[in-house]
Amino acid sequence: MNSKNKVLISGASIAGPTLGFWLAKYGFEVTIVERSQSLRLGGQNLDIRGAGRAIVRMMGIEKEILAANTGEIGLQFINCDNEVEAEFPAEGSGSFTSEAEILRGDLVNILYEHTKNDVHYVFGKYITAIHQGPDKVEVTFSDNESGSFHLLIAADGVRSATRKLIFGDEPELKFLGLYNAWYTIPRLESDTQWARWYTAPGSRVMLLRPDNHGTIRASFSFLSDDKGYLSQSDREQKKVLKEKLSGAGWEAERLMKEIDNNSEVYFDGISQVKAPRWFDGRAGMIGDAAYCPTPLTGMGTTLAMVGAYLLAGELSRHDHHEDAFAAYEKRMRPFVEKVQKLPPGVPWLAHPKSKLGVTVVNKAAALLASRPVKMVSKLLRSKEKEVTKDDIELPVFE
């Protein structure tokens, strides 16, 4: 394909700019449209591992990502008396904290800085209508302007509006029975460079993580059936969160107070996207819009970047988009299915209902963090190659 091939990408988060980077490298004319008025630089910690790490290395941005590390030194399990029950240092095997731990907004900014000269960004607009013809995709935007493109790719998140315009209700949003809220709170003297995990009775978990901006990234999750919370107003959602936090102990009062002080509380039902197909004609989707694995896997960023790299590569080596899409799906879908397969008991085991269940979780964490278990784990890994969920072949596209 040559530079006359115009591609429109919806979403300027991670998957979209990564796709834009590689498409521009292969000579495509790329436009990224973003609903927000500017880059959305908020968000929580992300880690880039395995194949994703290989891709950022190829993009020449690995050193910048490592330099923007959050400074988190590991994970501690805390009990109701604020005592450490278990500790998992960042340098340990199977650590919760990765070397390439970075805030979402910092990664978005790095990707933007490395694509802004080769990709045309349009902020404050979104797609409202799509009409596919034999040779192009006609798109109408929220300001009533229109445009013609050879291809359209949705990369605008788990609740993608562009996906609905392309596929309707065909993709399934599979709710996992877990609600989660994320927001940024002021740092206190009592905060450390450790991520701190607290399990409370009533199937509730609080997580406080340090960042490199002088603040703390707070997360609160709780098990629940689908209560329709996402259709409620921000005020109603904040009320729900405070009710769920009430009586949880540890830092619950602090988190409740900061909910009222915070205008950017992101509240969502943790869900996976299950789509029987990712492409329709000249339109398609990647990243969370196509195959969100949920934050529970720790693989969302890696999936987004791997998918973007592979799709751009297949489009560069095929003369017809249909062949590129088919080759991409054949390569990518087994990887997605492997990543989306959650371990038994997730997320329920980590969110016990009773005090006894909380004790069991903390004691299990302490056992896993103990020196004998760590030594046995290290010995087993030294004797056989560990196969991880982020194993996928990354061909070199010319």
Automatic annotation (TrEMBL):
Keyword match Hydrolase: no
Source organism superkingdom: Bacteria
Pfam families in the record: FAD_binding_3
UniProt keyword annotations, A-Z: Monooxygenase, Oxidoreductase
Annotated EC: 1.14.13.114
GO molecular function, one term: 6-hydroxynicotinate 3-monooxygenase activity
Keyword Oxidoreductase listed: yes
Enzyme class of the recorded protein, top EC level: oxidoreductase
InterPro entries linked: FAD-bd (IPR002938), FAD/NAD-bd_sf (IPR036188), FAD_aromatic-hydroxylase (IPR051704)
Domain FAD-binding, residue spans: 6-339
The name this protein goes by in its record: 6-hydroxynicotinate 3-monooxygenase
Source organism of this protein record: Chryseobacterium carnipullorum
Lineage: Bacteria, Pseudomonadati, Bacteroidota, Flavobacteriia, Flavobacteriales
